[in-house]
């Protein structure tokens, strides 16, 4: 019979349970053992047990509770075998919750949410390298397996496995407490968490497309992490700012690559391909960020606000370039960068005219950081061409063509240079 | 990937226009909160009974005809929907096993992702392959 029963693939069912339950499982175990590395291992042991037993017994009605109970049993066994862990066994014995079966609705319990937040902050601790933070976050909060992380980052599984082992050891050696930082430390630590999430997003987003689902899926993963964090820290404007930025950027996915895999620039994109649902979610998250600060923007919210200007415009011509220029100015104050200044120049030229843009760009020509940045002569050439200074424009486009490493872009720039020849 | 979870109406909710009980609403609210906090829920709405809905029928060049509800065959009607973003089909199944329904049926359809199909040109496939070979060689 067709379509009456779905073939239940036990492995994918277990993977799905793992994805939903693992972060809370690890977080709960980390609170009990005060050792994130150990918690992660215990959770993995429980997963192995599930893989052994569930294909026979079926997935239990409350798989989260099953995993927790199994992990706890493994913990007690481990500790009994190893006297050094006596103290931890004692702690576990005192944990009332440990004896109770956690149920599905326990996710709403503040306790578990606090644990989850502690886990996020521990995985993104500055004592770890950025790569280590990314790997640990994907493993412990995203519920990805080592081979999936390796695939996403085009790395060897053994390399990622080692990275995770080392990261857990570093956390242990540094005696990193399992806690959410407070006070001044909190801002810096939160920015480390947001950086990790945005890095994961960009890793997927810059890989514009591909036959491999895993790299675009990194964008989805980063968004999921961002949305989880927004649920855990609803009062932090920058968390909503980052979510807004990611939602709006990803809303353009379908429009940003042409039929031959070539990147399509924002102003050339078919806006009917932009995903309105995601734009709506992004604008709502941005509103939330704005309402929490009374209008002031952090780095992510400012970028989201710029993305929102594009998202709100029905056509490129309708874009509020004046506002974008102001937002870039604000962004440059928060995070001074010649690239941001270059972007501001483009916005200014669109809002006011090419002279205004040229004035800003001319100040950037001596900027060492932009010495080999082909977009600087490319943008300058564009302003000059619009002003009718064709000889100068041609020279800039030729210079930009020499600097770019991308063949397609080189062709485009040489074409523009040729157009400047009377 | 994204899925649309379509909740079907039944006699009780559509024809009789029965409101969900406070307890049912609370359970659904809790479930929705779980979905949101897990970062998987993009959207979700409940629909009013079909008595307040209408259909528009087209036939050739004649003017489109508006037909008011309620409509028969209530189990073919939609009572509400979610749009969920998850890793795979198994994850939707696992989430929806936890939905507070005790009877009836839901239908789950994958949402077409334009970027999944449009851009996997041979060129990109080849590029990805090269990247992978490079990574293996590292």
List the helices and strands and how they pair.
The complex is a heterodimer of chains A (422) and B (138).
Chain A: H1 10-33, H2 36-57, H3 63-81, H4 86-94, H5 96-99, H6 110-123, H7 130-140, H8 146-152, H9 157-173, H10 184-206, H11 214-232, H12 237-250, H13 276-293, H14 299-312, H15 321-334, H16 338-351, H17 354-364, H18 375-386, H19 390-403, H20 407-419
Helix pairs in contact in A: 1-2, 1-3, 1-6, 2-3, 3-4, 7-9, 7-10, 8-9, 10-11, 10-12, 11-12, 12-13, 12-14, 13-14, 14-15, 15-16, 16-17, 17-18, 18-19, 19-20
Chain B: E1 2-8, H1 22-37, E2 41-46, E3 54-59, E4 62-68, E5 78-85, H2 89-97, E6 106-110, H3 114-118, H4 122-137
Antiparallel strand pairs in B: 1-5, 1-6, 2-5, 3-4
Walkthrough of the structure:
The complex is a heterodimer of chains A (422) and B (138). Chain A is built from 20 helices and no strands. Chain A has helices at 10-33, 36-57, 63-81, 86-94, 96-99, 110-123, 130-140, 146-152, 157-173, 184-206, 214-232, 237-250, 276-293, 299-312, 321-334, 338-351, 354-364, 375-386, 390-403, 407-419. The longest helix of chain A has 24 residues, at 10-33. Helices cover 33% and strands 28% of the residues of chain B. The mean pLDDT of chain B is 83. Chain B has one domain: 2-Layer Sandwich (Alpha-Beta Plaits), CATH 3.30.70.1060. Chain B starts with a strand and ends with a helix. The radius of gyration of chain B is 21 Å and the shape is globular. Chain B has helices spanning 22-37, 89-97, 114-118, 122-137, and strands at residues 2-8, 41-46, 54-59, 62-68, 78-85, 106-110. In chain B, strands 2-5-1-6 form a 4-stranded antiparallel β-sheet, with helices on one face. In chain B, strands 3-4 form a two-stranded antiparallel sheet. Chain B has 138 residues and is of the alpha+beta class. At the A-B interface, helix 1, helix 11 and helix 13 of A face helix 1, helix 2, helix 3 and helix 4 of B.
């Amino acid at each position: 019979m067709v379509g009456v029963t779905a073939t239940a693939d036990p492995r994918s069912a277990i993977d799905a349970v793992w994805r939903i339950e693992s972060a809370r499982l690890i977080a709960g175990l980390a609170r009990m053992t005060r050792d994130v590395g150990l918690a992660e291992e215990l959770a993995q042991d429980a997963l192995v047990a599930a893989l052994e037993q569930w294909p026979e017994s079926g997935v239990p009605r409350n798989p989260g509770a099953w995993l927790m109970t199994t992990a706890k049993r493994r913990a007690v066994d481990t500790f009994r075998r190893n006297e050094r862990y006596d103290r931890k066994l004692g702690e576990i014995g005192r944990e009332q919750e440990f004896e109770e079966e956690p149920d599905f609705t326990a996710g709403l319990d503040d306790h578990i949410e606090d644990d989850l937040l502690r886990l996020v902050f521990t995985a993104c601790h500055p004592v770890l390298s950025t790569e280590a933070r990314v790997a640990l976050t994907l493993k412990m909060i995203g519920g990805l397996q080592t081979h999936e992380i390796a695939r996403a980052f085009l790395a060897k599984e053994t390399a990622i496995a080692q990275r995770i082992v080392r990261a857990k050891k570093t956390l242990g050696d540094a005696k990193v407490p399992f806690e959410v930082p407070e006070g001044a430390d909190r801002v810096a630590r939160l920015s480390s968490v947001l950086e990790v999430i945005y890095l994961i997003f960009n890793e997927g987003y810059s890989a514009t497309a591909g036959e491999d689902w895993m790299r675009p899926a990194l964008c989805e993963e980063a968004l999921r992490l961002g949305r989880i964090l927004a649920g855990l820290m609803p009062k932090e404007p920058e968390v909503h700012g980052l979510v807004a930025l990611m939602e709006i950027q990803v809303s353009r996915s379908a429009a940003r690559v042409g039929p031959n895999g070539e990147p399509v620039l924002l102003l050339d994109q078919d806006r009917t391909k932009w995903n309105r649902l995601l734009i709506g979610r992004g604008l709502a998250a941005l509103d939330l960020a704005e309402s929490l600060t009374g209008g002031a923007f952090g780095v992510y919210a400012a970028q989201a606000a710029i993305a929102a200007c594009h998202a709100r415009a029905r056509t490129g011509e309708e874009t509020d370039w004046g506002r974008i220029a102001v937002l870039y100015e604000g962004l440059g104050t928060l995070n001074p960068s010649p690239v941001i200044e270059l972007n501001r120049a483009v916005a200014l030229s669109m809002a006011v005219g090419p002279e205004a843009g040229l004035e800003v760009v001319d100040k950037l020509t001596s900027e060492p950081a932009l010495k080999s940045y082909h977009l600087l002569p490319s943008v300058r050439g564009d302003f000059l061409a619009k002003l009718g200074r064709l000889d100068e424009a041609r020279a800039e486009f030729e210079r930009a063509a020499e600097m770019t490493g991308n063949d397609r872009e080189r062709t485009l720039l040489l074409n523009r240079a040729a157009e400047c020849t009377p | 990937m994204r899925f649309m979870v379509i909740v079907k109406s039944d006699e009780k909710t559509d024809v009789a226009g029965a409101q969900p009980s406070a307890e049912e609403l609370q359970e659904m609210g809790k479930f929705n909160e779980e979905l949101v906090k897990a970062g998987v829920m993009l959207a979700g709405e409940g629909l009013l009974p079909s008595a307040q809905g209408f259909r528009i029928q087209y036939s050739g060049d004649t003017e489109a005809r508006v037909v008011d509800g309620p409509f028969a065959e209530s189990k073919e009607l939609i009572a509400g929907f979610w749009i969920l973003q998850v890793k795979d089909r198994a994850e939707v199944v696992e989430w929806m096993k936890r939905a507070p329904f005790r009877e009836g049926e839901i239908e789950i359809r994958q949402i077409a992702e334009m970027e999944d199909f449009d851009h996997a040109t041979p060129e990109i496939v080849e590029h990805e392959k090269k990247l992978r070979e490079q990574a293996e060689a590292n």
